[in-house]
Amino acid sequence: MNSFLSFCRDSVLVTAVIAWFLAQVLKVIFVLIKDKKIDFSRFIGAGGMPSSHSSFVVSLAMGVGLVSGFSSTAFAISVVLALVVMYDAAGVRRAAGQQARILNKIVEEWGKEDFKNTEKKLKELLGHTPVEVFAGAVLGILIALLRHL
């Protein structure tokens, strides 16, 4: 039991999961504030403020840096991973969401506003704006600092 408590207290993996969880909770809270409704799908969905992908990988990288050292190979690997994930979130996945939005409009106009000619409406909220990615990264840094300093 003591080793489990030590793992929970010291693990950078637990740090990353906490950062991801808090980002997902914040998404629900921000939608509640903005739209005046509780949308629990935001808890598991991609996209939105802040980026949970960014908070997850940045908290991991920061935690690795604080625990293993900022000159360690593990830190370098985790930073590269974080940069790839954040680039994907703000670039590729965001562009895919924008394309889905346009395709959905085309299908609505062509199909007279129903999707019976297609499987279903394409998911539009896939990626993040640069601000959402930045906010997720800041959240990740703060969580890692709070847990490992």
Automatic annotation (TrEMBL):
What keywords are annotated for this sequence in UniProt? Membrane, Transmembrane, Transmembrane helix
Which spans are transmembrane here?
A: 12-33, 54-87, 125-146
| InterPro entries in alphabetical order | DUF212
Q: Which domain of life is it from?
A: Bacteria
Q: Which Pfam families did the record assign? A: DUF212
Task: Quote the protein name from its UniProt record.
Answer: Divergent PAP2 family protein
Q: Which organism is it from?
A: Candidatus Avimonoglobus intestinipullorum
